[in-house]
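Standup notes, structure subgroup. Blocker cleared on the magnesium ion input:
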Amino acid sequence: MNYNLPDWAEKVRAGDIRAISRAITAIENHSPESEELLQRIFPATGKAYLTGITGAPGTGKSTLVDRLATYHRQRHEPVGVIAVDPTSPYTGGAILGDRIRMQGHSSDDGIFIRSMATRGFLGGLARATAEVALLLDAAGKRQVLIETVGVGQDEIDIVRLADCVIVVLVPGLGDDIQNMKAGLMEIGDIFVLNKADREGADRLEEQLHAMLSLVMPRDGWHPPVIRTVATENSGVRELGETVEKFRKHFLTSGGREKKHIEHWSKRLVEMLESRLLEKVLGGKTGETKLRELATAVAQRKKDPFSAVSEILKDSGLED
Ligand SMILES: Nc1nc2c(ncn2[C@@H]2O[C@H](COP(=O)(O)OP(=O)(O)O)[C@@H](O)[C@H]2O)c(=O)[nH]1
Ligand SMILES: [Mg+2]
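Run returned:
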């Protein structure tokens, strides 16, 4: 496969599976061609609705994502799934290239599923996930579901990029939602009480409502609690409808646009940082130079402020 960038971008936009898979690999490797490709497809983005599904391992996120995907497919909406969790069991379907399809969706071309490794991406996992979401957006996936384990800053950064954040909780997981990161409580737009068939569901729901009553509503939205039994498909329809309700609410309140502007402010700073770093410290000589300066500072032969000034002078950014 050796197509030129315009062709490649065109194929991505047409939903060509191989072109998308190859683009995702390029994004994961943070290769220069991925940037050029994203630049080309960017005008075609902005139409997808991103839903982040987060929660502790084993709470049923993958099962819910699978059910939600079915819900959207029944409404003829193209679906993209990004699983930022290597343990997600999206196997059993046909594997074409590096595409892994969910069982039950294997004959459906309207759904694209991709698992991503969780660590070690240049420029960070959140960057890679955001770019893959753009790609699926350009490829016409109107609903993009992002599954991520709700721990760590990376994961929180990922769900922040979603238009709607679903936090999944289950009864009996240590029982105390106090264990849950306060951060998650704040970013949840919808709370799902999954495994509602289990003992303790009522108590957890009470606790949740008590905690949520302390959270300030954002733009007039009070995060609801939806009970589901994902394995039995129970409550999934209500969840799908609630996501839609939230979408409409946030669109009219201007909350979505605000969120997108915040997202892009952050992204632009990150991109600027990495470009500037590349400019002043890029390549082999940059690495050597950095090492030399760090050694000099560690040995107190130079102070760190002068070292930074020196780097900036060398790159012509300061005189
Ligand atoms: N009893 C019960 N089990 C469920 C429910 N939802 C998921 N599970 C099971 O919980 C386990 C973990 O589900 P999975 O979707 O992989 O969770 P994840 O780690 O959050 O993605 C699997 O064995 C599921 O079949 C539910 O609503 N009730
Ligand atoms: Mg999973």
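Discussed briefly. The pocket of guanosine-5'-diphosphate (ligand 1) is lined by residues 55, 57-63, 88-89, 194-195, 197-198, 229-231 (CB under 6 Å).
Next: hand off to the docking folks.
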